[in-house]
Specification:
5-stranded mixed sheet; binds zinc ion; about 170 residues; globular; alpha/beta; about 45% helix
Length: about 170
């Protein structure tokens, strides 16, 4: 059996639903005084949320923190069938953590470029411009990437247009 079997694709409806769940985590994170980013890990059934994580700080992003917890808790072969949902396209650090944690699918709502338009050179979040597909393409694993997702764009961007202007 292949180390990286083909995973079933999530439907558009389930991607949208899971991204809105991740956005609830982002909003809770913002209410707690942290950056408005949220991530979840969803099981191979595309429905069960296994882990959730909001932003902690500039080096403990929602996604990489969640992925380290996932790698400690689940087998790599199981994680290959799971999906990382994240409100905003994962940065190079977080995409690489997904790679090393062996999560086979990444789905994000808002592109890194759209976030960059919101944050600019904000000292707390000088957003990189390195698409996650570029990071994935340099690896040896056929990780599937979905995003940006137009249907939830406005909802997921709202906390960022608010947050980065105010701070
Ligand atoms: Zn990150």
């Amino acid at each position: 059996m292949s180390l990286y079997p083909q995973n079933s694709a999530p439907s558009s409806a389930s991607i949208e639903k899971q991204l809105l769940r991740a956005n609830d985590i982002a909003l809770a994170s913002m209410s707690a005084g942290r950056h408005p980013f949220g991530a979840t890990l969803v099981a191979p059934d595309h429905e069960t949320v296994l882990l959730t994580q909001g932003n902690i700080d500039s080096v403990n992003h929602a996604e990489s923190t969640l992925l380290r917890a996932a790698a400690a808790r689940f087998d790599a072969s199981y994680l290959w069938g799971c999906t990382l949902y994240t409100t905003v396209e994962p940065c190079a650090m977080c995409t690489a953590t997904a790679y090393w944690a062996n999560v086979g699918t990444i789905a994000y709502g808002v592109s890194e470029k759209a976030l960059l338009d919101c944050t600019g050179a904000h000292p707390e979040n000088p957003t990189m411009d390195l698409p996650c597909r570029d990071v994935v393409s340099r690896g040896q694993k056929p990780i599937s990437v979905y995003g940006p997702i137009d249907a939830v764009q406005e909802t997921l961007l709202a906390p960022h247009t608010q947050f980065w202007r105010a701070s």
